[in-house]
Amino acid sequence: ATARAGSEIAFRWSQWLPSHRGPMTTYMAPYEGDLSEVNVNKLQFFKIHEGGLYPDQQFGKMDTVPWSVKPNLATDKMIWDNGVWNATIPWDNKPGNYIVRHELVALHFATTNSNYRNYGFVAPQFYPSCYHVKVTGNGTAVPVGVTFPGAYKPTDPGLVFGLYVNKTSYPFPGPPVY
């Protein structure tokens, strides 16, 4: 796809399980040359958007959730918005080819406080998807990035987040938003 720097891009998710709750983030990484020859594990991804907790908002009534929680996470917002999540390409991005990495991190297994702890494992679940986007515009910025794998550590507070215990703020893993 081609998109101008500063424009909004929309990601459409298929029907999502309300039990798989968590944050959503979007990254971009510039690359040169033929995409089929790019080693994506060496690309420098910078974060352009993150959505976590929305403590003062409720996104509809989620009768399908079997436990009592206030729907206030990025996934709840995405479900409420008919499976769509939006992010904006930074207005000052240098024109060129980019890989856009959009991901959802489901936290229902993230800690021993999980409603699912009886299954014998504790870890977040990652749902990344990547897209090629040609960015146009007049920007000159090439933000510093991180690599995947390597951007997160298993002990990052956002990856061992007590979804059913601590619901006042969310500590995002990875770098800050550019």
TrEMBL record:
Cofactor(s) for this protein?
Cu(2+)
**What's the protein called, per UniProt?**
lytic cellulose monooxygenase (C4-dehydrogenating)
Q: Which GO terms describe its biological process?
A: cellulose catabolic process
Q: Name one GO cellular component term.
A: extracellular region
Q: Which UniProt keywords apply?
A: Carbohydrate metabolism, Cellulose degradation, Copper, Disulfide bond, Hydrolase, Metal-binding, Monooxygenase, Oxidoreductase, Polysaccharide degradation, Secreted, Signal
Ranges for domain Auxiliary Activity family 9 catalytic come to 2-170
Question: What species is this protein from?
Answer: Tothia fuscella
As one GO molecular function, the record gives: monooxygenase activity
Q: Which residues form the signal peptide?
A: none
Give the Enzyme Commission number.
1.14.99.56
- Give the record's family classification: Belongs to the polysaccharide monooxygenase AA9 family.
Give the reaction(s) catalysed.
[(1->4)-beta-D-glucosyl]n+m + reduced acceptor + O2 = 4-dehydro-beta-D-glucosyl-[(1->4)-beta-D-glucosyl]n-1 + [(1->4)-beta-D-glucosyl]m + acceptor + H2O
Query: One Pfam family, short name please?
Result: AA9
- Record-linked Gene3D superfamilies: 2.70.50.70
